[in-house]
Structure formats: structure tokens, C-alpha cells
TrEMBL record:
GO biological processes: carbohydrate metabolic process; glycerol-3-phosphate biosynthetic process; glycerol-3-phosphate catabolic process; glycerophospholipid metabolic process; phospholipid biosynthetic process
Annotated binding of NAD(+), by residue: G7, A8, G9, A10, W11, G12, A139, R255
Family: Belongs to the NAD-dependent glycerol-3-phosphate dehydrogenase family.
Catalytic residues (positions): K191 (proton acceptor)
SUPFAM superfamilies from the UniProt entry: 6-phosphogluconate dehydrogenase C-terminal domain-like, NAD(P)-binding Rossmann-fold domains
Gene3D superfamilies assigned to the protein according to its UniProt record, in alphabetical order: N-(1-d-carboxylethyl)-l-norvaline Dehydrogenase, domain 2, NAD(P)-binding Rossmann-like Domain
Domain spans labelled Glycerol-3-phosphate dehydrogenase NAD-dependent N-terminal: 4-155
Protein name: Glycerol-3-phosphate dehydrogenase [NAD(P)+]
Residues that hold NADPH according to the record: W11, R31, R32, Y48, K107, A139, R255, V279, E281
Length: 338
């Protein structure tokens, strides 16, 4: 199958590399032409995925115009806040050509519109089949060929979605399909917020009990918020929800978790964000989700406290106290999977 991956950060590069290893026809298109030239010359993405050789079968080009029209599947591997511009450029490049699926690899909610990745794609490329690829997949581990599983979420799991699933799957990556796109995408967005919270727990040296409690209540919050926003409860207990929550809250590699750890240690949020070279999706997604929950009157106390820490200057220790001293209640308050 013919894939084009737009964006050569850590994940776009790792996923393209995986597809090449799976014998798919794949072209990786970095955003900057000079980055494409570097990747072609060095056969390594030293900026975002150092130490991993790109196989000869992985084509790299800086000329998106030349390749997108011939793709069956276009994968968008940019940060969530850059998806709209990336789709606009893609629309111009596609002209009359029709790719069969445009799917996002991003895990964030758009600021202001509060649209999920596939909704952003649909708003810029109406009539296009859209989807999301999400789940617990640290880029470096996938690039090293370590086993992982993820979800390809599309509104209709039709024959073509099954073909894409098969093309993406192999001995090191098992791909499941889902037609609950909202659930898969909200799982990917929300888990990044809670990974920052888990990092805060570590920065505050609260111990393993605290992190376990946080993750458990975070899952309940994910289900409650997600279901209220149109997702199915069961999806949050799968790879895109629980799976990615566990991976990101525990992964030593997680940029969201690590950022939260620094915040918990008392570092200033603005200073941390100013010096970042790679994306921390949970930061802006906290703002987008908090606004959305407030607009809809949804109760999301962990998300609320994370917003207070990241955008309102609240001290992490104060936020912890606020969560611990909330009104006591029964554990069964959240919806259970059907
Ligand atoms: N790295 C991972 O392990 C991983 C795994 C699964 C999903 N994701 C998700 O994939 C998305 C991309 O993450 P990443 O890890 O590849 O990021 P990264 O920080 O490694 O790289 C960022 C990428 O985004 C591009 N970019 C930055 N600003 C841009 C802009 N304004 N317009 C277009 N492109 C821009 C950069 O050129 C680069 O290709 C994120 O939503 C992330 O949550 C990452
Ligand atoms: O490094 P993070 O925190 O952006 O997490 C990467 C992936 O989303 C893990 O599945």
C-alpha cells in the first residue's frame, strides 16, 4: 500500500520506518526541505530520533507536491496545533487527487475550536475519509522494532480500513481497528494531561500509592468526560485510553510526564516551555480541554487542577491538597464499560 507521512518528528519518522520495514511503499516528508536533505544525506533523523538508521526502502523527500497525489493513505505526524495548517497545505497540494484515507497521528485537542484531530482534518478536507492512529507507542521503541499495539480509528471500519490495518501490522506492531473515533482521540488527548499530573506526583516525591490513585481516578475522569462528549466508555479501557495512560504516566521517555516532573519539582512552567525543542501535547491540550469541560459543565477535577497549575500559577502541592480534600464519595460514580 502507498503511504505518505507528513512530518518527520520522532513519531512520523518512527512510523514511516516501521511501514518501510513492513514492506509498504512509504515516503516520509519532513516539513522543512533542509531537514529532508539532511535525512537523505545522513539516513538518520539526528534531530528527533537519533541513533536509528533509516532503511534504504524508506523514501524521503522535501517535495510534498510530487508525492501526496499518488498516496492511498496520508498520515499527518505534526503537533495537534499545527494540524489545520498542515491540512490546508495538503488540500492545495492534492488538487483534484483523492487519497483514500487521511489519518492523524497527533494526540491533542485544537485550541479555541476544541476539535479532535480527525475533526480538524474533516473541517479542512471535507468529503475525505479521516481517522486517527493512536495508542501506547513511544516512537523510539517502535523504531527499535520492540513489540507494540495500537488502534486505527475510522468512522467506518470498511474493507479499505481492514486493508490499512493489515498493511500497518506485522510481527512487531499489532493494529486494532475501532469505529469509536471520538473515544480513541479523547483517550489520546486526555492521557497526556494525566501524564503531566503523574510527573507532578514524581516531582513532589509522593510515592507509588499516590501515582496509582491518580491514574485510577484519571481513568474514571477520562470515561466521564469522554462519554459526555460522545465517546463510548469501553474505548477508554482499551489501548487508546488505559493502555496509553499507563505507558505515558510510567514511561521514563515520556515528554509529558517529564515536563510534569519538572513542574512538580518547582520549575517555572513558562521557562520550561520556552526551552522545549520537542512537543508536549498535554500542555495546550489542558487549556483546550479545560475550556471545553467548563463550557459543557463537565466535572473534571484533576484536569481543573492541572489547568490551575499550568496556567493560573497554583502550586502543585496546593492542587494536591484540593484534590485530596474534595467531598467524599462512592467509587462507583463513574460509568462502567458496557
Ligand atoms: N513521539 C512519540 O513517541 C509519539 C507517539 C505517538 C504519538 N505522538 C504524537 O505525534 C505528534 C507529533 O509528535 P512527535 O513526537 O513526532 O513530535 P516531535 O516533537 O518529535 O516533532 C515535532 C514535529 O512537528 C513538526 N512541527 C513543529 N511545528 C510545526 C508546525 N507549526 N507546523 C507543522 N509541523 C510542525 C516538526 O517539524 C516535527 O516534525 C504529537 O501529537 C504526539 O503526541 C508522538
Ligand atoms: O512522549 P509523550 O509524552 O509525548 O508520549 C508519546 C506517546 O503519546 C506515547 O504513546
Amino acid at each position: 500500500m502507498k503511504f505518505v507521512v507528513l512530518g518527520a518528528g520522532a513519531w512520523g519518522t518512527a512510523f514511516a520506518l516501521h511501514l518501510a520495514r513492513a514492506d509498504q511503499d512509504v515516503t516520509l516528508v519532513p516539513r522543512r526541505k533542509e531537514h529532508a536533505a539532511l535525512l537523505q544525506a545522513e539516513r538518520e533523523n539526528r534531530e528527533y530520533l537519533p541513533g536509528i538508521a533509516l532503511p534504504g526502502t524508506l523514501a524521503v523527500t522535501g517535495e510534498a507536491d510530487a508525492v501526496v497525489g499518488g498516496a492511498e493513505v496520508v498520515l499527518l505526524a505534526c503537533p495537534a496545533q499545527a494540524l489545520r495548517d498542515t491540512c490546508s497545505a495538503l488540500r492545495t497540494r492534492l488538487g483534484g487527487a483523492r487519497v483514500r484515507l487521511v489519518a492523524s497521528l497527533a494526540k491533542g485537542l485544537e485550541l479555541r475550536t476544541h476539535l479532535r484531530p480527525s475533526e480538524v482534518i474533516a473541517s479542512v478536507l471535507p468529503g475525505c475519509a479521516t481517522g486517527s492512529v493512536t495508542g501506547p507507542t513511544n516512537a523510539a521503541e517502535v523504531a527499535r522494532g520492540l513489540p507494540a499495539a495500537l488502534v486505527l480509528a475510522t468512522a467506518a471500519v470498511d474493507e479499505f480500513a481492514n486493508e490499512v490495518q493489515a498493511a500497518m501490522s506485522g510481527p512487531t506492531l499489532r493494529v486494532y481497528t475501532s469505529d469509536d473515533v471520538a473515544g480513541a482521540e479523547f483517550g489520546g488527548c486526555l492521557k497526556n494531561v494525566y501524564a503531566i499530573a503523574a510527573g507532578c506526583c514524581e516531582g513532589l516525591r509522593l510515592g507509588d500509592n499516590a501515582k496509582a490513585a491518580l491514574m485510577t481516578r484519571a481513568l474514571a475522569e477520562m470515561v466521564r468526560v469522554g462519554v459526555a462528549l460522545g465517546a463510548r466508555a469501553e474505548t477508554f479501557y482499551g489501548l487508546s485510553g488505559f493502555g496509553d495512560l499507563v505507558a505515558t504516566c510510567h514511561g521514563g521517555w515520556s515528554r509529558n510526564r517529564e515536563f510534569g516532573q519538572r513542574v512538580g519539582e518547582g520549575r517555572a512552567v513558562a521557562e520550561l516551555m520556552a526551552h522545549r525543542k520537542t512537543v508536549v501535547e498535554g500542555y495546550k491540550t489542558t487549556a483546550a480541554l479545560d475550556e471545553l469541560c467548563r463550557e459543557r459543565g463537565l466535572e473534571a477535577p484533576i484536569l481543573r487542577e492541572m489547568h490551575a497549575i499550568l496556567f493560573e500559577g497554583k502550586q502543585p502541592a496546593e492542587a494536591l491538597r484540593a484534590l485530596m480534600l474534595r467531598e467524599l464519595k462512592r467509587e462507583t460514580a463513574s460509568p462502567l464499560p458496557t
